[in-house]
Amino acid sequence: DSGVTQTPKHLITATGQRVTLRCSPRSGDLSVYWYQQSLDQGLQFLIQYYNGEERAKGNILERFSAQQFPDLHSELNLSSLELGDSALYFCASSPTARQNGNTIYFGEGSWLTVV
Amino acid sequence: TQLLEQSPQFLSIQEGENLTVYCNSSSVFSSLQWYRQEPGEGPVLLVTVVTGGEVKKLKRLTFQFGDARKDSSLHITAAQPGDTGLYLCAGVGRDDKIIFGKGTRLHILP
Question: Which residues does chain A have within 8 Å of residue B42's beta carbon, measured at their own beta carbons?
Fold first, then answer.
């Protein structure tokens, strides 16, 4: 158990819909990361928040957005869903802002299936 | 764009055999990490290598960072069924972003 909690574990929704994935980081961790994992693309970095502020952006689509709240939990919002958005979405956390030299702890992921 | 290529993509070997998987790039990384991911779980960090030429051992696993800090290898001695999983390498670039390879899916047959 990494200490990172993600909900829901599984989600099935229709194309065009919007979903919200939720993440609670490890106690004391200020950074939250979101990743998307698919068979063809592998693990892709989407976005990082540190202490409530966006710190780094990766391959995140404009249809997707995220935020980190004052209690440090984070949400990833996926809208206008397409079949290709079906993937495993991971949240991860770490104590500090920098990725280099840091251990990043991953949650168990949220499986999203778009039908 | 920084890319990490992992090879082989799939590897299935008998228990007790040795194996090496590779992680290659044309880019230089500040550090390189190896993760193992099991079905239904998130990746778990195994090791971080920082210095060119660095070798780290974790029981039967030996990790090496290339001299130029562009590539890395993971060698497993006397593989066991518990080693089965997806092995991911991840490089941290100068922009402090982590780039993951697509992984090597390893299956150890009892």
Answer: 2, 4, 90, 92, 106-109
Q: What is the DSSP code (8-state) at residue B81? A: G
Of all residues in chain B, what percent are helix, strand and coil, respectively (each to 5)? 5, 55, 45
pLDDT at A30 over 70: yes
Nearest residue of A to residue B89, measured between CA atoms: A43
Beta strands in B38-82 (DSSP E): 44-49, 55-58, 61-65, 71-76
Cα torsion for A96, A97, A100, A106, to the nearest 10°? 70
Residue A100 contacts B where some CB pair is shorter than 8 Å: yes
CB B13 within 8 A of CB B108: yes
Q: What percent of chain B clears pLDDT 70, i.e. is strictly above it?
A: 98
Which tokens go with A89? Answer: 């979405």
pLDDT category at B1 given cuts 50, 70, 90 is low
Q: What's the rounded Cα separation, in Å, for the pair A36 and A110?
A: 10
For tokens 């660095």, what's the residue? B54
Residue A86 has pLDDT above 90, yes or no: yes
Q: Determine the pLDDT at residue B96.
A: 80
Q: Is A75 exposed, middle or buried (0-12, 13-18, 19+ CB in 10 A)?
A: middle
B90 contacts B101 by C-beta, under 8 angstroms: yes
